[in-house]
Amino acid sequence: MKNFKKLVIAFLVLVVAAFSFTGCSKTSTQVEMEAIEGIREQNKEAIKRRTEQIAGLFLEQYAYQQFIAYKAQGGVVLGLTVDEDLAARWKAFMDAHGAVTSAVVDEVERHHYEYTGRIILTGEDNAQMALTITYDRTGTPYKTTIQDYSDDSKLSFGERMAVAGGNTIIGLLTVFAVLVLLSLIIYCFKFVNRAVTPPAPKKEASVSVPDKAAKSGPAKAVPAAKKEEDPMLDPALVAVIAAAIAAAEEKPVEGFVVRSIKRVKTNKWR
User: Per the domain annotation, does 226 fall within a domain?
Assistant: First the structure.
């Protein structure tokens, strides 16, 4: 009995220890995840500050000329490659919309092992474009892109419905165009099949010739309708007519040969 109690106590101790270790492992995992998330948030904040500094470059007077002059002297602002990209994007924007009157950091996002910061640039004509700067995991920029930007929040309800209707019509037209194209492709399959499959050879009707006619020489093909009406093809009829003629002439049947039998258009015998 004492041994049984010891075993029960030992089992309970093991269970409590297992739960304790499990709780510790979960806690440590949660702590690690929270630490990682904290580092990511810090990195995003650092990327945001860096992007805001770059946005400030656009608002200085003669900023573009100073940027190009500094680059021509061998200076590096963001990086050799990214400086070239930024200069090209900047000039393209000014050619289209004039000088930059506003540069606001719109958003900073993390994508796997890189970050992106987007700056909304506003020109003298109030047109807006989005400049996106891509950073690596260390926070170093290495690529820039720019594209047209439209703030849907500034549109009225009618304008939003017009945009939505236009998108719907374009989508429907695209679907129907694809369906028509597929129908044409399927319709052309039969022509492809005809071109690939060779035509089947025509079967010629064979006419059997009696042995006696074959011995006398080649016989002309007789149409099927006439074959059925020709009395020469009925041996019984030929035999009866031959016997009748032999009886009328009082000669043996072997003394003559019936060559042909023709129907006369009269009811009298000749």
Answer: yes
Give residue 264's pLDDT.
Answer: 67
Q: d(Cα 130, Cα 212) in Å, to the nearest integer?
A: 103
pLDDT digits (tens, 9 = 90+) for 147-186: 887 765 555 667 668 878 888 999 999 999 999 999 888 8
At which of 99, 125, 154 does a domain end? 154
Ramachandran angles phi, psi of 131, nearest 5°: -100, 120
- Same domain for 135 and 243, yes or no, is no
Which among 141, 154, 60, 148 has a CA at the least distance from the CA of 108?
141
Nearest to 259, CA basis, from 211, 270, 241, 248? 241
Q: Are residues 114 and 13 in the same domain?
A: yes
Q: Are residues 240 and 132 in the same domain?
A: no
Q: Which two tokens stand for residue 179?
A: 């369906």
Residue 62 lies in a domain: yes
Of the candidates 231, 234, 255, 233, the residue with the CA atom closest to the CA atom of residue 243 = 255
Q: Smallest Cα–Cα separation from 119: which of 51, 67, 61? A: 51
Query: pTM for this structure?
Result: 0.45
